[in-house]
What does this fold into?
Amino acid sequence: MSWKTFKEAKIAAYCKAKEKGEVDPDIVALVESINENPDLVSLSSCSGRINLLRFDIDERKSTAEFFAKWHGLVEKEEFEMRLYSYTEKMQLWFKVEPFILHVAAKDLESASGFLEKIRKSGVKRGGIQAISKEKVLMEVQGNDYIAVPTDSVEEWGPLLDIANRMMERNLDLLGKLEKLEW
Amino acid sequence: MSWKTFKEAKIAAYCKAKEKGEVDPDIVALVESINENPDLVSLSSCSGRINLLRFDIDERKSTAEFFAKWHGLVEKEEFEMRLYSYTEKMQLWFKVEPFILHVAAKDLESASGFLEKIRKSGVKRGGIQAISKEKVLMEVQGNDYIAVPTDSVEEWGPLLDIANRMMERNLDLLGKLEKLEW
It folds into this structure.
């Protein structure tokens, strides 16, 4: 498959997902700014979120799944109502995850250019994950995160304040990235 | 600089660091197994650790620094003694971080081969971070982590049990990786 055909298929899939409301609104501007570069195309994205996740460290693969997620700020009352409604045995984790973005590039030169801009903007995590003749696959992710079993936390107010502050900083970073020329 | 000269210099630096006790013992076997491949060389590594870290989300760059770290399992009594000796104003975070490894490859082919083996072994995070004529730079990191401000945690016993279990699983993964032929 040529790069042009590949990109057109990915753009069509993105438009469909966006129509269905499956693309996080806070990352739309960045994704569309990246897609303006003829040599880049977005594959999947998440703008960042606050999660409650079923997770047993010794049964990782079979069990990690969402109990609740928020893509924006979370209010203590709403959060605690959801948390205290959890009655399963499996350990529940509280996680704050920054944005994550998968992007394909036409060649190594355009991939390197993309990663260079990403690093200069202060994003530390990410790189090229696979290289084939037709394309280069990359993953990049924001910086700040929280991960802790919910039963280790006594009082949620201060931790939710920090979680919300992280989400705001994550949005600031997305805002900075979407203003760049990709 | 030719690849051969570059690799020789990095191996010399590694041997010096190892002599000084600056290489984590639990990652030595993996690093030396990787270095047996003439087209790969390790640049830096950490076998994974449990940290207490000064960290203010709004002053990230200027303030993130270690207050304490353990490269192996941690005992509750020793941990709490260290934690309760902290009297500074800056928020203190508890973090469990899996192994991290920086490796250079001679070319894209050897880099891709390395990353493929890494993925097949169950390591999800990592990729190529920079490409130049002479070499390809990669970063790979283990899977499980914890990150939470210490003042959100009421009781340390259960959380330290999970932290130690993560460290054990991290060592299992390193053990699996060091047995591969790189």
Notes: The interface with chain B takes residues 57-58, 60, 108, 112, 115, 125-131, 138-139, 143-149, 151-155, 158-159, 162, 165-166, 169 of chain A (CB under 8 Å). The longest strand of chain A covers residues 40-46. The first helix of chain A runs from residue 3 to 19.
